[in-house]
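User: I've been trying to design a sequence by hand for this structure and keep getting stuck. Would you show me what you'd pick, starting by listing the structure so we're on the same page?

Assistant: Good idea, let's start from the same input. This is the structure you sent:
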């Protein structure tokens, strides 16, 4: 059976859980021994990051590499189309998500606990986040998912990111206007049969994580 090194609160882990659910894969979840980045975990996965998989001794880190690998070995339902330009567009959005948008959300983690919160950072980071969402709104044309009605690799990272935006905005109260086409996309995404349960579970994991931070 496929092993997934993961924690419920991992946003990139959530991306892979959605891919695996869509591919109807069975897997067992193993938390990284002594936490991610630990010497014990780095012995198994040298990069020290979650998610990572182990398939009969084949170990692989990085959510995009994992998503594309799973799509290549389990070909139905396909999560990347045949057309090279469409595939490239999907990868463009996926990388925009991973390198331009998600790091801004992650940057808020250190500011959830009131004692380590820097209000000036909270406000200035939201301005950049707004710019990224506006850029995404220019790049993407959801109908209703990013690439029509088939779930693709590009959609999977946004499941956790929409939950992070909602949860962090509730706690930190920053100004952010999600453009309406992206709002409609979020609604279509979280109700997709391969996404709904994973999205709900991720909201729950985030809420418990945030409650611990807020309690101090
Ligand atoms: N590019 C990696 C990033 C994964 C990542 O940063 N995961 C976080 C947890 S959600 C992590 O393992 N951080 C540990 C570290 O950076 O050492 C991916 O897509 O899998």
């Amino acid at each position: 059976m496929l092993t997934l090194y993961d924690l419920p609160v991992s946003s990139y882990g959530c991306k892979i859980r959605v891919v695996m659910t869509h591919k109807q894969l069975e897997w067992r979840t193993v938390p990284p021994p002594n936490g991610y980045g630990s010497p014990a975990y780095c012995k198994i996965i040298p990069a020290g990051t979650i998610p990572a998989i182990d398939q009969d001794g084949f170990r692989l880190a990085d959510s995009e590499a994992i998503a594309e690998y799973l799509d290549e070995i389990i070909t139905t339902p396909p999560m990347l189309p045949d057309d090279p330009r469409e595939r490239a567009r999907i990868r463009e959005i996926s990388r925009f998500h991973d390198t331009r948008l998600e790091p801004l959300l992650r940057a808020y983690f250190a500011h959830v606990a009131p004692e380590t919160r820097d209000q000036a950072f909270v406000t200035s980071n939201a301005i950049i986040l707004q710019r990224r969402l506006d850029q995404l709104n220019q790049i993407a044309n959801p109908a209703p998912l990013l690439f029509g009605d088939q779930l693709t690799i590009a959609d999977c990272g946004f499941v956790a990111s929409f939950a992070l935006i909602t949860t962090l905005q509730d706690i930190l109260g920053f100004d952010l206007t999600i453009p309406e086409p992206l709002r409609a996309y979020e609604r279509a995404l979280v109700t997709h049969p391969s996404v709904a349960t994973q999205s709900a579970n991720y909201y729950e994991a985030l809420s418990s994580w945030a409650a611990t931070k807020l309690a101090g």
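That's my pick for every position. To get oriented when you compare it with your attempt: The chain is about 55% helix and 5% strand. The longest helix spans residues 84-106.
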